[in-house]
Structure formats: C-alpha cells, structure tokens
Design goal:
Layout (H helix, E strand, L loop, with lengths): L26 E2 L1 H4 L7 H9 L7 E2 L5 E4 H9 L7
Antiparallel strand pairs: 1-3, 2-3
Protein name: Transcriptional regulator, AlpA family
Organism: Paraburkholderia lycopersici
Length: 83
C-alpha cells in the first residue's frame, strides 16, 4: 500500500522578504519615503514649508522628489534638521 500523504507545500511568506530600505543616494517620491516617516503627508508638507524638512525638487508639474541624502539627514535628527 502506498503512502498517500504528501509533504505540505510551503509558499514564500511576506515575513521572509527583506525589509525595505531607502537608498543612500538618488531621488525618491513621497510614496517611496512615506514608509520610513513617522508622520503623515500634510505634516511633512508643513515641515517642508517651514524649512524643517528637505525641500522637494520639482521634476514636472505633477511630480516632486526628495534627495535621499537629505531624507537620511532628516531621519537621523528630525528635531535638529534645517533645510
């Protein structure tokens, strides 16, 4: 008689994926830096206007990006950062 029990199929889990990282250099849009920031988009916009967060670079009429180097500086010292 054959053994009909098959080994369970193990599918890759989301938990095994490496955590996302923000590149050290280059440009990133809001959607790319959002997961790393403990604040919302409107608070971020207010900080940018006040000069307390990295200034955006306008790529087109509807697209802005932030320098990753500046975002990393902000994340290292959010209260002391000045643009």
């Amino acid at each position: 008689m054959k053994n009909t029990t098959a080994a369970p199929v193990v599918s890759p889990s989301i938990d095994t994926a490496p955590p996302p990282t923000l590149p050290a250099i280059g440009l990133s849009t809001w959607a790319q830096i959002d997961p790393f920031l403990p604040i919302g988009r409107e608070t971020w916009r207010k900080l940018v206007r006040a000069g307390k967060a990295p200034q955006p670079i306008r790529l087109s009429l509807t697209c802005v990006a932030y320098r990753n180097e500046e975002v990393h500086k902000y994340l290292a010292d959010p209260l002391g950062y000045r643009a």
